[in-house]
Amino acid sequence: MNEKKGLKKLFDFLNSRLIIDKAVDFFLIFIGLLAALSVENYIENQNQEKKYISSLISLHSELETNLLLNDGNNEIKLKYIKIWEDVGEFASNNDFQSYSGLKNIYESKPLEYENKTYLSLDQNAFINRDLLSDIIHMYEINKEVSNSIQDLTISLENLYKMYSELRFIVLYANSEDIINPYSNFNFNFNSFEKLLFIKVEPELKDLEVTGKRILTSIEHELERYNIDIDESKSYSNYYWLANTSYKLKKNDLSIEFAKKGLKKIKNTISSMGNDQKSYYGRLHMHLVENYWILYDNSDSLDFNSFDSLIYNSLLEWEKSNTYNFSCEINYIHYYYENKNYEKFKFHLKEYYLKYSDEKHILNYLQFWQDYIRKEEILNIILEKNPEWTKEYFLNNILQSTTINDRIKKNN
User: Residue 278: is its pLDDT beyond 90?
Assistant: First the structure.
């Protein structure tokens, strides 16, 4: 009997230890699951934060681009105002001058704002919801401004159409009854004025003010993560800013962006991937193009002031194998400005040897006429274009062939 009681105590003791061990196991498993979930949540939060920061940087670049485009649309607005004022003055003075209104309108095509980054944005994963609301509002303003400027363009086209009809009636139709055409013209004139000053101008200003405010908000948001916006942008961000600035003739700004982009590329040309090498070449291409424009527009600086700047970027552009044909043309132009005839001739030959499109270079030949007219240079060109005689090339191909030049020539 005592033996049975002893065995029972032993089994009870072992069972209690087993229960405790199992409880400990369950506790450890629970702790392990919590730890695993915590690690998983941490990694997920880190990935979300990283994606969020990347979105902020890209949005900043896109908004900065749109502010540049908004400057461009303000310039277009001023050109529209000039056309509107001119035809209004001609009509009010009964002085119906010939005017290239449609040509000027078409050459002043409104600029479309960028929205690729915004359209690809994961709004559900955007951490700062208040900032997201501001960004959504900003892109709604972009859309409103685009629509308003398109309406303004149509309004100006209608006004100029009425001016042309009125001019024809007054000058050529000998009509005594021109009340209706004047009435239509005045209606279109006043419609343009109201659309311009009541809608377009305030919207353009709103876009500028709101855009700058949101840029600052994004910069402050990035500061919370110890990120400087200028340091965080990629070479591709800076390339597109340089490209937009170049198209808007903001040459100094384009140079600034291109240099910042090149600083982001740390690799040597031999260790660059194809994408990086392409951007490297295009950034140097923009430097060359901007330097040429600054040189052409300068009254006080001679070529020596730009010589090394252009040449050094040409060398790097050439290494990238990007837009090679354009790079070769810029070499030709460089040696023309450098007054190095032999190098000019060498690179002209190189162009014709390397590139099958002999016609592309024709847009540039008129700038080098004193070299082009030399016999050995003529022979290089005519050898590649046997369908041309020397006289035909000099009198037709080499001369400027813009529409305005042809009109002047025919008159």
Answer: yes
Split at pLDDT 50, 70, 90, the class of 145 is very high
Q: Who has greater pLDDT, 202 or 91?
A: 202
Residues 305 and 226 in one domain: no
* CA–CA gap between residue 238 and residue 287 (Å, rounded): 13
Exposed / middle / buried, residue 399 (Cβ in 10 Å: 0-12, 13-18, 19+): middle
Verify that 209 and 64 share a domain, yes or no. Answer: yes
The Cα 218–Cα 134 span in angstroms is: 10
The answer as to whether 5 is a domain residue is no
Residues 327, 331, 336, CA angle at the centre, nearest 5°?
A: 145
Q: What's the whole-number average pLDDT of the chain?
A: 87
Give the separation between CA 135 and CA 119, rounded to whole angstroms. 12
> What range defines the domain where residue 284 resides?
234-322
Q: Cβ contacts of residue 48 below 8 Å, gap of 6+?
A: 125, 127
Q: Are residues 88 and 224 in the same domain?
A: yes
**What's the CA gap between 328 and 352, in Å, rounded?**
10
Q: Which of 355, 282, 344 shows the shortest CA–CA distance to 317?
A: 282
Residues 258 and 406 placed together within one structural domain of the fold: no
Say if CB 325 and CB 351 are below 8 A apart.
yes
pTM here is 0.82
222 and 243 inside one domain:
no
What are the phi and psi torsion angles at 259 (to 5°)? -65, -40
